[in-house]
Specification:
InterPro entries: CheY-like_superfamily, NreC/VraR/RcsB-like_REC, Sig_transdc_resp-reg_C-effctor, Sig_transdc_resp-reg_receiver, Tscrpt_reg_LuxR_C, WalR-like. By secondary structure, the protein is an alpha/beta fold. The protein has 13 helices and six strands. Strands 2-1-3-4-5-6 form a six-stranded parallel sheet, sandwiched between helices. The radius of gyration is 18 Å and the shape is globular.
């Protein structure tokens, strides 16, 4: 759920000392689930112990760009699936901040998804790393500081996706049909293709059945398909299942 106050965050100056052995990093949390943001804040946001100072939060793409621009954090924890175009859209709109030589904003994707196309998409967009939400609080703090220092950080299983995508000389071309879909539509597409019922998808993604139906209708329209059976064949042919 969006919070109208989140986009009004004011810049926060770094605190003296920084805690955690003088380490200090300013972080913005971007995730469309308030309870998850609250949990992350409680886990890593005790600045005196962790050195992590959470200076802003956002629940969708527009809020994220506004808060990141206002606070200029050193690291952004970025969910892949967001209302308004997903994490890739946030990266696109923050490209100038990432390339700032004096005060770069670096992005670490933090997502429930471990799908190869999600990992590769945000890394191509400029993120410095990708970890899943199964990560421990201690490992997340360490990953944040590594990204702040310019390192690339990945959950072990995900590193292979990136190596394969960027090292291969015969990497598959961009799928223009797939690119028409938002990140959330792709997620619904994969679950439909795996045989999930609308109610099961709604429960897994924490959205309503009506929202699932809307996403399915949008996917069918964009891909010019007639029903879920054609959609399943389409997804299977592209190895998205």
């Amino acid at each position: 759920m969006s919070d109208p106050t989140e986009a009004n965050a004011e810049p926060v100056e770094p605190t003296a000392g920084g805690g955690a052995g003088e380490r200090h990093v300013r972080v913005v949390l971007v995730d469309d689930h308030r309870m998850f943001r609250t949990g992350v804040q409680a886990e890593i946001g005790q600045t005196e112990q962790t050195g992590v100072e959470v200076v802003g939060e956002a629940a969708d793409v527009d809020q994220a760009v506004t808060v990141i621009t206002a606070t200029r954090p050193e690291v952004v924890l970025l969910d892949v699936h967001l209302p308004g175009g997903g994490g890739v859209e946030v990266l696109r709109r923050c490209a100038a901040l990432m390339s700032d030589a004096e005060q770069p904003v670096r992005f670490l994707a933090l997502s429930v998804s471990d799908a190869a196309e999600d990992v590769i998409g945000v890394i191509r967009g400029g993120a410095r790393g990708y970890v899943t939400k199964t990560i421990t609080g201690t490992d997340l703090v360490n990953s944040i500081f590594r990204v702040q220092e310019g390192d690339a950080v990945f959950s072990p299983r995900l590193a292979g996706f990136v190596l394969d995508a960027f090292a291969s000389t015969d990497a598959p071309p961009v799928d223009e049909d797939l690119d028409r879909l938002t990140q959330r539509e792709r997620e619904v597409l994969r679950l439909i293709a795996r045989g999930y019922a609308y109610k099961e998808i709604a429960k897994q993604l924490f959205i309503s059945v009506k929202t699932v139906e809307s996403h399915v209708s949008a996917v069918l329209r964009k891909l010019q398909l007639s029903n879920r059976h054609e959609l399943t064949r389409w997804a299977t042919a592209r190895r998205l299942v």
